[in-house]
Amino acid sequence: MNESAIYEFGSKVYCSDADCGELLQFVVEPDVPRLIDLVVCSVFDGAARLVAPDMARVLPYGILLGCDKSAFDHLPATPVRGAGHPAVMRAVPDAQTRIRRGDHVQALDGDAGRVLGLVVRTEDEAITHVLLAAGHIWHRKHVAVPVDYVAGLGFAGLDVLLTKDHVADFAL
Questions:
Q1: For residue 36, is pLDDT > 50?
Q2: pLDDT for 61-87, tens place per residue?
Q3: Potential cystine with 105: which of 63, 112, 136, 161 (Cβ 3.0-4.6 Å)?
Q4: 159, 167 in Cβ contact below 8 A?
Q5: Same domain flag for 17 and 77
Q6: In Å, how far are 8, 70, 129 from 25, measured between CA atoms?
């Protein structure tokens, strides 16, 4: 079975018994590329909790976690600017990279757009596509660029091995 999950920044995240928060960031292993954790900003204490993708299920109205609020509160947290600081903290290893809403995407001939989310194969958490808002602000398109065209995930954003016109060919 080859199912995919579409994770979009800003999606509401729900525990089995309560609203938990909002999808804030992704932690990825760039060499594979594979999704390691979802970073969820808690509505209760503002902490950025690390949620394993196998605990999450994408639904039409948001992301449902396979735990209750009490278990969510005990998940490790990670430092994020503007988030609260709970007792259990876990730093993201250097070998892993965070992808944030609005990260720049650089094409071969200039700025190609901003990151909106990821498409992930659920069986092995492999990233298959990167969702972008591409083009000029008056002619903005949502596109899904296959991860095979992503040259690198880094501090400054993503680099793709395409021109801006070719990025637009992947419009949704």
A1: yes
A2: 999 999 999 999 888 887 765 554 544
A3: 112
A4: no
A5: yes
A6: 9, 22, 16
What is the token pair recorded at 146?
């296959």
Q: Name the nearest CA neighbour of 77 among 113, 43, 24, 40.
A: 40
d(CA 8, CA 120): 11
Number of domains in the chain: 2
Q: Which of 68, 90, 70, 94 is nearest to 80 (CA)?
A: 90
Residues 16, 25: Cα–Cα separation, whole Å: 21
80 phi/psi in degrees, rounded to 5: -140, 135
Please report, for the domain that includes residue 123, its CATH number. Answer: 2.30.30.240
Domain end marker among 97, 121, 144: 97
Is residue 88 located within the same domain as residue 122?
no
Asked whether 59 and 8 are in contact (CB, 8 A), the reply is no
Residues 19 and 71 in one domain: yes
The whole domain housing 10 covers: 4-97
Please give the DSSP secondary-structure letter assigned to residue 81.
T
